Amino acid sequence: MLDPFFAKWHGIDRTTIEWGPKIDATKCTGCGLCVVTCGEKRNVYGFDPDSKKAVVMYPQHCMVGCDNCAMACLWDAISFPHDAEYLKVLSRKINKEQITKELDKKLTENPGLVIE
Amino acid sequence: MAGKEWFGVERSTFSWGPIIDEEKCTQCGLCLLSCGAGVFGYSGSKKTFRVINFGSCTMGCTTCGKVCPESAISFPDSSRTFMHSAVVKGKIFPKVKEALALRLEKFPDHVQHLKSEEK
């Protein structure tokens, strides 16, 4: 079972979305940058101290659209299943009312984001 | 006061953040929702979304641009090129090593002994 926080992406069932990192262990040098580039909330990665390799633990917790770990990896050891085109098709499917609802909530909780 | 750091390097020494093409933007607000760094703001009077904290953008992050249905958001450089240069020039690996140790200390279940599990 997915943690409720990760279960939906703007109303879309997260399990239907193909988005998460894959590590090519033959390229991974175990630097750990991917592990710490991913935030503590999602914390997609683990680390194997024996083989000194990063390990993908929770790909379904990966933020849809984020591939910061892959971009930072000097050895290009991380890949994602899709590119921006896939995400655009997906984002066009988001219900407008869902966005409005989420925006209201976020702007209320973060008044600093509202400007004149 | 020292500014925000990225693995020991002053964040303000880097120029990285989103640029909205106003012609293409349809004001859907998905960029603001996608951003966890508070880069985007909403103007109540103009009813538009704008970049209000360019320098707060997460290093190399292009999430808002990738999910933007109108492809209205661009960045100063390709993310990979920018990040590889930042990682190398910043000589960040000693700090990364420290951060990794701290992360695994805080989340011990993320220490994965893969070989021993197979036995």
The major beta sheet of chain A can be summarized as:
2 strands, antiparallel
Sequence of strands across the biggest β-sheet of chain B: 1-2
| Anisotropy-based shape of chain A | elongated
Indicate the percent of residues in helices of chain A: 25-40%
Major β-sheet annotation of chain B: 2 strands, antiparallel
Q: Order of strands in the sheet with the most strands of chain A?
A: 1-2
Mean pLDDT metric of chain B: 95
Radius of gyration of chain B: 18 Å
Shape of chain B: elongated
Helix count of chain B?
A: 5
Oligomer: heterodimer
Q: What is the number of strand segments of chain B?
A: 6
Q: What structural class do the secondary elements of chain A suggest?
A: alpha+beta
Tell me which CATH architecture of chain B applies here. Answer: 2-Layer Sandwich
Stated plainly, the CATH topology of chain B is called Alpha-Beta Plaits
Number of domains of chain A: 1
